[in-house]
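Page 47, continued from p. 46.
Same chain as before, 153 aa.
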Amino acid sequence: MPTPYEHTQRSSFLFLVNCIVALVPIALLVTGMLARTPPQVQLTLLAVTVLSLGLAFAFSSLTVAVRDGQFSWWFGPGVIKRTVPLSTIAAVEPATTTVWNGWGVHLTARGWLYNIAGRKAVLVTLRDGKRFLVGTDEPERLTKAIATGTSLR
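Result:
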């Protein structure tokens, strides 16, 4: 049985950006700059603050794991989690995303991208032809762990 692999990549940048976005409405409310604005606007700003802090927490890390015959990845505490049986993987290789691909979860020309930082990733091709990219700062180690688990060596 292959050795389990698990690694968490953190993004201080995304965490910081979301926290700053959350602090702006708080600063506006605390300084009284919005004292004359309608309560609905103030409530909307508070909602934006809570949402930004939630996003900061949820999307500040991406964990990948290869164990128990599965390849899994999730953001933060598991806000968005995906799992693929290793038996369904036809190919895996280190990859580099384009600058235009950016970060986050979205569709690209090479399939879905799950990424929080940098441009390094692994490109996974499933037996049914579907492909996706998972960001990691350890593409070679992750590729090896998946390949070992799927006997693609």
